């Protein structure tokens, strides 16, 4: 049976219930009759790069479930079965698992990490598999190790530390783990994913590190801590550690922290040594989240003027921390509609004057000032009437931010990014009619700047990176402006400039940078929404870039954004999208079949099927068998997702929501013509929905999408579903659950769905 394991694993995920039942029986028989070879076959399947991703996925799940269980009695039973397996076979299984850490498929790597930890939890306490840590460390130290292997290795170390106790490892093994973790966290490691995995692994390994933390040299090594280091947000030093710890205390104990910290603040805030002043300011800023507004507001009112004056302190560190503290005040406590207002008509002029003056300070301080302006403006975003008090200052603020973005006295790209992000927030907040002219003027300025980036002389990779970063920021600003103006009376400004903007975006695509590609795609999606059917004239030239985005599975964020833009274009063009649907559907179906594509892209693709079907109606008929086949396959996969893995539970919810949204779009698309084509799929769709209803892990988004789909099913297929709804009575309980929800939108959807089903049942 080991020779047939691939076909059996695939059959166990079939949509045909009879085929699936037979395959599940075969797997159970194999497991019961020959557990050692069953485990070996699964591990080989998981490690084989030539095998289908679907069979590898299920192999990993079965392997993990054969070694671990929630029930303690069952868990011990499985452990004893593993212990009794022949040593040669256990060695082969473990080698296959270690090999899988280098897989090109992320899901296989992750599953292998988890299974390795399960085996380790059985063997290491028995003083077996003593070379595991050394082998994992070797993955981190080899010069040719790929980032994906390092990331998987660090995840494995983290899982192992979760599964075993510190007493199970020798000190040299603990040292090896911490060495690997620190290497992964090191700033010299270019991969963000590897560094993040290192930080997560350190979190899980902290219980093992007690001895190391007692040694100052090792403690400093673990925490990348140096004397007199420059104040940099990316450097973890003693001061930052103290502030972070204090902030966590404040969030946990609330008001009780205030009388303990304020004496320190008051004693040090005016001392001659800048370190005291900076520390006092940092401490105050660190306790703003947690205590009640009522407790903090008198302190903020008393200290705000002092903080504003401290922006003129002679020491840069003090000004930097003061600007950060002001940003924290505005972020956490500033709410114009609250009875406890931090910013008033009386103090706003002084606040804006200080901020617009301080934004010209050294780059580090200027960056924090951008953040303070951002949060100050954000506080007015949801309060349209109050935002009018900001209007007199917005033009000067935008001018100052654009000048900051142009500064030549720094190589710090974060300052430029902060400046443009703050401009975006000002645009989002501006709701007064007099602000719209200012935004229109800003739009032309940003378009001019984007055009200028296309003429830059590129003579090095650094020049290219600088151009790409700047284009991404400018495209991001234009996206926000388009969204703002298209929802206002100034929409005509967008329509007048649409041709010029589209030319710019297409030229940006010509630069072939993935980061620019993402931002330009998002801006084009906004432009499609704004221009509606008029966007059709851009499609012939834009389609080539859209197709490139859909095919870019290596940079999955680009692919995901491109999928979203397809939905935007479908809603804008309706049936005018039809000439491009063959290519789009082909690309989407290939993406779903591509095991290399990040799984997060697949749920939006299913939703996109619904957008396309809704746009072209009965013309979707030729794609229907292929789309439904993919949807049914994904529905089958949901059955096998690991409910003990939070990430997989979240992914399962995304997947099911995408499936329901796809069916809703398809049902609505066929409502007025050829609805009978969907009747054969109704029974399985109801069975899937019932299974989702019974799943305690579904989230509100899934519930909302499922209930809406039930209504669309009844509405589109009408009397054809009468027997199905009569026999599948779960819908009554499902809707009853929705009526008890606090979500008014869900209640409305459930009420509509209930009406559709009742209409069918009485027909």
UniProtKB/TrEMBL annotation:
Gene Ontology CC: one annotated term: cytoplasm
Q: Which SMART domains does the UniProt record give?
A: IBN_N
Q: Which GO terms describe its molecular function?
A: small GTPase binding
| Listed InterPro entries | ARM-like, ARM-type_fold, IMB1_TNPO1-like_TPR, Importin-beta_N, Importin_beta
User: Subcellular localization, per the record?
Assistant: Cytoplasm
Residue intervals of the Importin N-terminal domain: 23-103
Entry keyword Signal:
no
- List, in alphabetical order, the GO biological process terms annotated in this UniProt record: protein import into nucleus
Family matches, as Pfam families: HEAT_EZ (PF13513), IBN_N (PF03810), TPR_IMB1 (PF25574)
PROSITE patterns linked to this entry? IMPORTIN_B_NT (PS50166)
Query: Keywords for this entry?
Result: Cytoplasm, Protein transport, Repeat, Transport
Could you tell me what this protein is called?
Answer: Importin subunit beta-1
Q: What is the species of this protein?
A: Ananas comosus
